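Recall that a protein's primary structure is simply its ordered list of amino acids. Everything else, from secondary elements to tertiary packing, is in principle encoded there. The following example makes that idea concrete.
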Amino acid sequence: MFTAYVVVAILMSTVLVVSAGAKSLRTQHITGQMATLGVPEGMLLFLAAAQVSGAVGLVIGVWWGPLGIAAAVGLTLYFAGAVASHLRVGDHRGTPPAIVLTLIALALIALRAATL
């Protein structure tokens, strides 16, 4: 279980850092998607910081389990909010990835809790 947590945490952290980078750079794809969701452009850096914090928490969680669990809980809430935002505006194209990321965050909670 611990090895599974490490692998999934590293993959998820990579996805989070790439996504945070796109938000920080305000790429056209991200700004368009956020505009569709009704997210003000000023929130992009906050969202990017939340993603980077989650990624760092998952990685440190390899050595300190409670932080890994806390980071995964935070990411579950973050992505559940993303699911709700996509559903609210009827963005059925953006909903499935947010659901998958929510489920991965939930799996990270279970994997790290199983190895404490």
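The mean pLDDT is 96. Residues 17 and 52 are 6 Å apart (CA to CA).
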